[in-house]
Design goal:
With about 260 residues, the protein is mainly α. The chain is built from eleven helices and no strands. About 5% of the residues have low confidence.
């Protein structure tokens, strides 16, 4: 019995020794030293990072401090905007002036990233939208009063009020015709803010957009610097042809 146990122990020790020798031989043949590769990778990463920092440091520095001061002033004015009806138009004019200044700065320093300031301008325009909506509601209520006249001069002449085509355009209007403006947000990609911008440009109805020629599209596109290419990209003219044919859509003045 003892001889059998000794034999078993000897065989186990021999198997362990053989396994250790085989493992040593296998690791010697398949082991790869990655220390040099790791060191080379760290060197290349350090060189690339220094090169990037040098390129960033070589960019021209644009002083945006005056513009930031104006932006903060506008934001403060919007936050403290009173509920008076005459406050919004003047503020909208200042906002338009700031947008023009932004475009001039972009032309002078094309490498400058003005994305953050553009977002702040968008936020201000969104904040002004409820004020403008309230002004429109107030104007509609005033026109609905007994004896109120929307446009005294044409009524004195005995003629219906007709919209005037803006100078430099073919069918952009100075104000809406007798019909209620169409809901331009039904066009793909047009939200309430963009609809308000189109009203300022002189677009109120689907029939206007449906009549646009390529030259008209190019002209209106130049009036929408923050929405460049949106007209052709979203197919406004094709959509307007379909929407203008619906029963609830306004018709051109000559159709009345």
């Amino acid at each position: 019995m003892g001889f059998l146990l000794a034999k078993i122990l000897f065989l186990l020790a021999l198997a362990t020794a053989c396994g250790g020798l085989f493992s040593y031989w296998w690791f010697r043949r398949n082991y790869e030293d990655v220390t040099l590769e790791y060191a080379r990778s760290r060197t290349e990463w350090s060189a690339w990072r220094r090169s990037l920092e040098e390129r960033l440091g070589a960019r021209p520095q644009v002083d945006l401090a005056p513009l930031s001061v104006q932006m903060r002033a506008v934001e403060d004015a919007v936050r403290g905007l009173p509920q008076a009806d005459g406050a919004a138009p003047g503020l909208l004019e200042r906002l338009a002036g700031l947008e023009a200044l932004m475009r001039r700065l972009s032309e002078r320093a094309p490498a400058t990233d003005l994305t953050g300031i553009d977002r702040r301008l968008m936020a201000i325009e969104h904040a002004l939208f409820p004020v403008q909506t309230r002004l429109d509601g107030l104007e509609s209520a005033v026109r609905a009063l007994p004896g109120a006249q929307a446009d005294p001069a044409p009524l004195e002449d005995g003629a219906a009020a007709k919209p005037v085509v803006r100078e430099g355009s073919r069918n952009l209007l100075t104000h809406p015709a007798s019909d209620q403006p169409d809901d331009l947000t039904r066009l793909r990609g047009v939200d309430k803010v963009l609809e308000r911008t189109l009203h300022r440009v002189g677009v109120f109805y689907f029939w206007q957009i449906a009549e646009w020629s390529p030259e008209d599209v190019q002209y209106v596109d130049s009036q929408l610097p923050r929405f460049k290419g949106r007209i052709e990209r979203d197919g406004w003219v094709e959509q307007a042809h379909e929407l203008a044919a619906e029963p609830d859509a306004a018709q051109p003045p000559t159709a009345h």
